[in-house]
């Protein structure tokens, strides 16, 4: 079958085509794509040769390799019979078979020079328990370094290079201005192969369910981060520090494109603490908050879950003095939105003592502003730190009296009385019976334990049977042991 066009139909087709062409021209004049919609290919040799090299040259000298080592004492046991002094004498080896032997453990990470005087910021887990710390610069010079500050709760530490400066350093960026899709570079020493640069984008901001630190508010990136990158720099396209690379999500141990960095805002806060006495002192709110889920949001007539709900306000606290109330919904801190307790904790914990902060709260359906003075948590009772050495279930435990100050330091918000275990020596009796840092000793043999002095007195006159009441994660359990 053949299509035949008459002169009439040809005229209609031509007219239609002319009309469509006119319509297309009109549309081209009225609807122009925005610059963001344009996808351009390189138009010149200069554009083809675009590179991140200038940024890398600028920041690479400020990124260092961090080598940490510690001496570990081990006992060498050839035979279990050597535990018995009789067998030692019989075999002519009086204790010689289990002489302590030293072994050196080392860890490798990265760090960032943030000041020309040689101040370096890195991860706490890179230099934890280290006896010696050494840093290697990009130009292969190596220096010993002193540990100025360690803050396990943020997984950050500050070092000071022992050497004559000035050293190349990097400036902090405003990590709050970072947006999803921004290009970033990760610089560090993965697997010990030497300084390495990887490129990616910001996959997410304000990740709060990572579980690495007490203050969870991470930058997520797909720039490759591997073991050894910890403590290294995450930089933006201006060559400024936006984060400290800290963790990866991986089932194999290598990069799967999900890496996390501590925001520069938190790193700057810890660095300032190192300049003011070498101790991180965070403001105390004196209130507890909880997540707003869909059910709570519906009860509060919210269009969506947001903010944090105030569940308790303690008498005499900064929150109490500011007029914060139970059932207030805090939706912003100094203009920055909060979405859950982790983001709220980050926003509040990075404020400096002596300043004021503004909460935006929803109260009875209306927005109100509450100004909170930033004060340190008080030590209402001396902590009276004691290491228990007498034979008891607590041998090897370091204990403190709880107060708002101790509670804040240990991340136990809202618990202000009792005796808490702050540290447990590995291999000690306390370790073997299952006691952990953060456990609160509520009672022994039906007697309430109120102070560390009282607890130590009980351990000096041990009973034949120990009935322990231990609070852990808000639940009290009973443990019965024989002396």
From TrEMBL:
One of its GO terms (molecular function) is peptidase activity. Residues 269-340, 399-459 form the PDZ domain. Its main location: periplasm. Keywords: Hydrolase, Periplasm, Protease, Repeat, Serine protease, Signal. GO terms for biological process: proteolysis. InterPro entries: Chloro_Bact_Ser_Proteases (IPR051201), PDZ (IPR001478), PDZ_6 (IPR041489), PDZ_sf (IPR036034), Pept_S1C_Do (IPR011782), Peptidase_S1_PA (IPR009003), Peptidase_S1C (IPR001940). It is found in: Periplasm. Pfam families: PDZ_2, PDZ_6, Trypsin_2. It comes from the Bacteria. This is Serine protease.
